[in-house]
């Protein structure tokens, strides 16, 4: 049941009215474009047809060919950081999410004091909808997508779930159901393959929405994250692939490609396409042990080598002034916040505390990118490199700390950037056999690397020893960024998050009252440190069981 009241023949009745004598017809104000942001999970740099892949992606290839391919586009190496930077326009050091991901049992989420992209678009009159993977925390109801700017939500809250049953385990025996519609558990939708379910939901949203009101659709596919599961019909076309993981992975990518085709078709059918901007992006590098490939880039998901942070990306839109070209402009995932707000008719800049730039002129018209550098991250909690030191950083930076920065054509890495292998596509059935060692890097006794990414995009020639002047300059930039960093928020896991206390499903477990109680208890503990006295153990037990009974 589509939106049937739209007059397809006369979209503007005012334009058809005859103008009075001597009066020039005035142009109607441009309606803000519909924005469709499609984010895939763990799709490798090599895993798209137009990068020479053995995986079939005809829809992505066509959309990219007719739009603008982003071939100097950067994301983050793991899930939560990319998603947080997309929705806030801020680096991880400015949200407290510098370290790892948000685990299901952690009392942590996207900072509640920051205005998200959908909230900003709501202020500009947009209808906002999210379909897919959230992975930005849910321990309180205030952390849920519907409380962070989305009118509707269908998807999972945790990092990875079964594609059919939507079960997710965060350790032995800690398993629960994770498919939510709005703020309720969607038990009745279990059994449907998530990629197809999400594409179907997008079509339903478009069918019931008026094209006259601007729309923001955030489609965060679970695909192609593990577990490797695919409908049988997609596996059949890759039956000759010897590597089983690669075969399943390829089937999942092709299924996702067809889901994007269905979404594009729905945009055209319901009258949204001509005034739409479609953005496609991966969230991090591919996981090479699970079928993904970032060849010929170095590294994989979870690393700060190019294979972990160079993203797949393109923009497809009838509104582009220049189409069918490849952009080499430097773009980072934080740039989408100010870019999309600008397209919607609003303003967002560094004055709002953003780290992103409005890159629409660079994408649409081919102008120079306003971005000249990227802070990939500074993670003080990650395992310090054995061979790093303050002396190795010219006395201004401890090179044992994991950090990465790109300034101009130069890229600097310190600490432990992760496994630095060049891993060819897994075409052999016996992957990763002994032949892999031909491109495997031995553990280097160093903690500083410098590359000229423009001349050496595959990071094969380390220039740290030859250009100490550039190393010093980039270390100084790390110091400047680190002065603006807020403390890392990575709390311990809370046993009360166990799905058994929530009816067998993952969901919020902390209330506002409990948060206030914890803060008061913390203040009381700090006041009584000087003269501690033994507390009543039975009182603690009473409090615990009172809260437990409330939850049950």
TrEMBL record:
GO molecular function terms attached to this record: metal ion binding; sulfuric ester hydrolase activity
Family matches, as InterPro entries: Alkaline_phosphatase_core_sf, ARSB, Sulfatase_CS, Sulfatase_N
Keyword Glycoprotein among record annotations: yes
Transmembrane segments annotated in the record for this chain: none
Protein name: Sulfatase N-terminal domain-containing protein
Similarity comment: family membership: Belongs to the sulfatase family.
Region: Disordered, residue numbers: 493-534
Lineage: Eukaryota, Metazoa, Chordata, Craniata, Vertebrata
Keyword Hydrolase: yes
Names of the cofactor(s): Ca(2+)
Record-annotated Sulfatase N-terminal domain positions: 33-345
Entry superkingdom: Eukaryota
Assigned keywords, A-Z: Calcium, Glycoprotein, Hydrolase, Metal-binding
Biased composition (Acidic residues): 511-521
